[in-house]
Design a protein that fits this description.
The structure holds 2 protein chains of 2 kinds. Chain A is mainly alpha-helical. Chain A has 14 helices and 2 strands; from the N terminus they run αααααββααααααααα. Chain B contains 15 helices and 18 strands. In chain B, strands 2-15-14-18-16-17 form a 6-stranded mixed sheet. In chain B, strands 1-12-11-10-13 form a 5-stranded parallel sheet, with helices on both faces. Classes of the chains: A mainly alpha, B alpha/beta.
């Protein structure tokens, strides 16, 4: 008998590793990627490739310079690249998209110490940077299928500034102006169902987020139907679905406790709606999630699970 | 039928079919047998035999004067070669008796107890104590101590643990299907001692044969005690057989941290222990053999073997006809979730040894520790609702006070967190380290 390995128990493991989780999320994003390619053609392809290149190259270079193990094979930078692309407008200049990728990884992730250490969702931080640096490019939208780039407004913009409500069916399928990945609700929901089925994400954050948006919008719509759009519109339009399913559920930047995940989801929903109604911007998903990311350590501390066998522990 | 469960836990691959279809085989007698003098939790035993002395199977080898202790008997007839330190599968080196078998020794028969029905509880406990019966699910706590309920306490509910939630192991299953009547007789004895209001036999629902066997035997029985036993089905999930998880699943009640089931009126016994109680009382037979699952993907003829205590792993490989055809990377005593990886084959089978596994690299892979992505899988699976990722972070930085704040000592070391961690962080190992540090800080052993 050859040399035997001695190690502490357990000696068997689940088959899901970090790379496998990342891969599953990437798989879940494929319907949304396909939808973006269908609606925005080569514009979408260019943005996705630029973001991917920005993210993966930056991660590789930083890890080389820091002389740590290069971990691009864990696919986390690939995932960040795809997520960033999906929240950018199709008409954004490609160098800006690339720069967004660089920023996401460099200042969103590696500066904190790399995978698992960052406070904010890297893709959203990259978008926030682009939004601050290039506000016009980030708020110029094109109509789907318009190869000559006919500009349009997003459904939320139309609702907020022109009181025009886009039909729900268009929102559901995605034939509207908007970021690459936020146009088709159907594609996002398909990805979400896959992640829930594979147990990669927990249902609490998406449910709390979408639920809060629905309730908030339902109340305001009931009070003043002419001023406030119906609840289903608020869920389908803009970034609520991609945010609730793919951004707010980012394990690194969301709470680890079950109760914390409820609070996080509700908080995201509330901040989103407050910005949509009271803010100068038509959309609030990005800032809502980033804000909740910031208080995640606090939420974790305040929501320790109840000790087994102890009633009224706190 | 409703299946009962607790919150949390994991679903490893079970591989129970490897060993379950085979008959229960009687293993050849070992020589030498290496019998650790202390195999239980409690006061250590002193030897009552000397080097060179001849002993008979079943003869007392060691005992202590303390109540929380359990005697050890000779598994074979032969000569004492030596009494010295020998390798223990979990504790390092402990004082052990080496016995060389006398092949010409006649077969030992045990005297049947004729008047079991009229024996008072006190004498039943005495017989169980003298036979050296300990908990056979792994913890090896002296059974007579568990059965001696302190003044002022009362057992309402007795649960017989047939969960057997560790992968690969089928020794309890084999006992349940082949020794059903005997286990019922053992339960009757425990019921007589404790007088519980309700008695359950709890079995995971991947062991339908055992559930069926008990229900059939109950239907055919004429005894009132047996008729009233509730056979319940548990959801197949690890660690369903953990004492506190089992109580939670069956009754919905939680045993407080640092307390015993006894404190809330519960008592749990493993099916193997119940069988040992039966043999101790009906046949005055000391605990010198047990069913051991020998399994894994490196061997022919995995199965369950009625093995003498003191048989070494080396002896098992050489004489049981199991034939190792692939080099194992790990030899594990116990189950793969909580068992001990062995550095060599010198360890002996103990009263609490449920299995010996020979696993290849494919079944027992080694990983490099990755980085935590705070996915919270460990939080979701922890059966005692800890936050393993946070505890581990603090242990790595030696912040013991913070680890204590996070209730590190509540950990039951089931390993579900480490099993499910996608970054392959050995969470339970860090938590164990934190546990010992916090306990040392508080001056507890």
């Amino acid at each position: 008998m050859k040399k035997l390995t001695i190690s502490a128990s357990p000696h068997v493991f689940s088959t899901v590793d970090t790379r496998g989780m990342m891969k599953s999320v990437i798989m879940a994003l494929l319907p949304a990627v396909a939808a973006s390619l269908y609606f925005f053609r080569q514009d979408a392809a260019g943005v996705i490739i630029s973001c991917l290149a920005g993210c993966v190259l930056t991660e590789y270079l930083i890890q080389k310079v820091r002389r740590v193990q290069v971990r691009i094979s864990d696919l986390s930078a690939v995932l960040t690249g795809i997520l960033l692309a999906l929240v950018l407008p199709p008409s954004i200049p490609l160098w800006m998209a690339f720069l967004g990728g660089v920023f996401s990884i460099a200042l969103g992730k590696e500066v904190f110490g790399g995978l698992g250490q960052n406070i904010f969702n890297p893709a959203l931080l990259g978008r926030a940077f682009l939004m601050a640096a290039f506000p016009v490019a980030l708020t110029t939208w094109v109509k789907p299928f318009s190869l000559d780039a006919v500009t349009t407004a997003t459904p939320l913009g139309l609702a907020k500034f022109e009181q025009v409500v886009t039909p729900s069916m268009s929102l559901f399928l995605g034939n509207v102006g908007g970021s690459l990945g936020e146009t088709s609700a159907l594609a996002l929901l398909a990805g979400g169902a896959y992640l829930l089925y594979k147990k990669i994400i927990d249902y609490r954050i998406p449910l709390a987020y979408v639920g809060t948006v629905l309730v908030f919008a339902a109340i305001t719509h009931l009070i003043a139907p002419a001023r406030f759009s119906p609840p289903i519109f608020h869920v389908l339009a803009g970034g609520v679905l991609i945010g609730a399913i793919f951004m707010a559920t980012d394990p690194v930047t969301s709470p680890v406790t079950p109760a914390g995940r409820w609070i996080f989801g509700v908080g995201c929903g509330l901040v989103t709606m407050i910005i949509r109604f009271r803010g100068g911007l038509p959309e609030g998903v990005m800032y809502a999630i980033l804000l909740m990311n910031a208080i995640t350590p606090l939420i974790n501390r305040m929501t320790k699970p109840k000790r087994f066998g102890v009633t009224n522990d706190r | 039928m409703k299946t009962l469960t607790f919150r949390g836990g994991v679903h490893p691959q079970y591989f129970k079919d490897l060993s379950v279809r085979e008959p229960l085989r009687e293993a050849p007698l070992p020589s030498p047998a290496i019998v650790p003098l202390t195999q239980h939790i409690g006061a250590p035993n002193k030897p009552v035999v000397k080097k060179g002395e001849k002993v008979k199977e079943g003869q007392l080898l060691g005992k202590s004067g303390s109540f929380i202790s359990s005697p050890v008997h000779s598994p074979i007839s032969g000569k004492i070669l030596d009494i010295k330190k020998a390798f223990h599968p979990a504790l390092g080196f402990v004082e052990s008796v080496f016995i060389e078998r006398d092949e010409s020794a006649p077969r030992v028969t045990y005297s049947k107890t004729e008047d079991v029905e009229v024996l008072p509880p006190k004498e039943l406990i005495e017989k169980i104590k003298n036979a050296g019966v300990v908990g056979m699910g792994g913890a090896a706590f002296p059974t007579h101590v568990k059965l001696s309920i302190p003044e002022g306490k009362k057992i309402d509910t007795l649960i017989i643990n047939g969960a057997e939630c560790e992968p690969y192991l089928t020794c309890d299953l084999v006992m349940m299907t082949r020794k059903t009547e005997e286990i019922f007789k053992g339960i009757e004895l425990i019921v007589k001692i404790l007088q519980p209001k309700t008695t359950y036999i709890a079995i995971e629902d991947n062991k339908k044969a055992a559930l069926f066997a008990f229900k059939k035997a109950r239907r055919e029985s004429t005894h009132k005690v047996i008729k009233e036993i509730r056979v319940v089905s548990l959801k197949t999930k690890y660690p369903q057989g953990g004492e506190k998880q089992l109580i939670k699943a069956v009754s919905g009640r939680e045993v407080p941290p640092g307390k015993l089931p006894l404190d809330i009126g519960f008592l749990v016994h493993n099916v193997g222990t119940v069988y040992a109680i039966y043999e101790a009382v009906y046949f005055n037979k000391p605990l010198i053999e047990r069913v051991v699952t020998i399994s894994g993907d490196c061997m022919y003829r995995p199965g369950n073997y009625l093995t003498r205590i003191g048989a070494t792993l080396d002896d098992i490989i050489k004489n049981y006809g199991i034939e190792i055809y692939k080099d194992p990377v790990k030899v594990i005593v116990g189950g793969p979730m909580m068992g001990f990886a062995q550095p060599h084959l010198n360890a002996a089978i103990l009263k609490g040894t449920s299995g010996v596994l020979f696993l290849s690299k494919e079944e027992a892979p080694e990983f490099e520790e990755g980085r935590c992505i705070k996915c919270a899988k460990c939080v979701d699976v922890c059966p005692v609702r800890l936050v393993p990722t946070e505890i581990t972070k603090n242990v790595k930085e030696k912040r013991w006070a913070a680890a204590k704040q996070l209730c590190v000592t509540d950990c039951m070391e089931c390993g579900a967190c480490a099993y499910d961690c996608p970054a392959r962080i050995p969470l339970v190992q860090y938590i164990k380290e934190g546990k010992s540090a916090v306990m040392a800080m508080e001056g507890k052993p």
